[in-house]
Predict the 3D structure of the following.
Amino acid sequence: MSLDSLGIEDFRCIQKAELALHGRCNLISGENASGKTSLLEAIFVLGRGRSFRTAKAELLIRSGSSAFQLTGRVSKEGLSRPLGLRLGKEGIEARYAGRPIGGLAELATLLPAQAIDPEVHRLIEGGPQERRRFLDWGVFHVEPGFVEHWRRYQRALRQRNAALRAGAAPAVIRAWDPELIEAGLLVAAARARYVASLAPHVSATAQRLLKGRLEISLLQGWSAERSLGESVEASWVRDRERGLTHSGPHRADLGIRFDDVPARDRVSRGQQKLAAAALLLGQLRCDAELGSSVAALLVDDPAAELDASNLERLLGEVISLPAQLFLTALDPANPVLASLPDGHRFHVEHGSVTRLI
């Protein structure tokens, strides 16, 4: 699977661009604030329906415009089909091969995109939500029933929390418990299976990148000494007092330890970046082994906060993946970048994109 072409209109600082892409490697150079990260972001949004830089979709629309539009052609199994996404006042509209796309879950299967950006360290030092998103992205691609289990659980959780906040009668609140528990156990079981498959890949990648032992574990979101049903019952009084559900997979986290110490407490910012990269690259290897398509890997300014040896190791891991690569660089003449596979080179200046080779 690969993205053969990319069209951009009124996205961030890019008014209009048309790019013919290389199926293996695409290097994008330019000064800071020139628009090269926006180009990567456009690919990510086309594949995910959201940005890796901001949760505010309206910020993606170029100043003075009312909407942005992204288009591309995606090759899969010898066939090339058009993919398009538009965001305006009416919301997001996406189409594939001439038909509307039902939702972001379907969009994510058409152009799976993963990003390693200068803020990737948030996966280590940020809150649990960052790690749950990472975890569920992987589970989604290898567990066909996961999306429906997750939706069931989220629906029951929303309804239960709404009843708690409204001060509803106990019977009304507890009516959601069976669905919450049943769907929650299915979500947690899928996550546990995935973490068991993911852990060896993360560990092996981290050993090569960090020369240390990186271990991950699933913190399921309730006490390991109790069942989910028992935990929901035990937190009943607190749930009523605070108007929200305290036990369940919505409070899950991914435990990350480096050489037996919590990674967020031990490693430097540069090491956090490499540890987070090990998680993402390990995920791509794991998903490929489990039968999921590996499409676009976006690497934004890999040299940031990394010395030459660490950068070389990171690029070695990136290059070894069977993915279409998109990388940005301030200095395309950096000798470490000479190890990149042959491909296309682009230069971005003031939002204008030029093909070099």
About this structure: The CA atoms of residues 147 and 290 lie 17 Å apart.
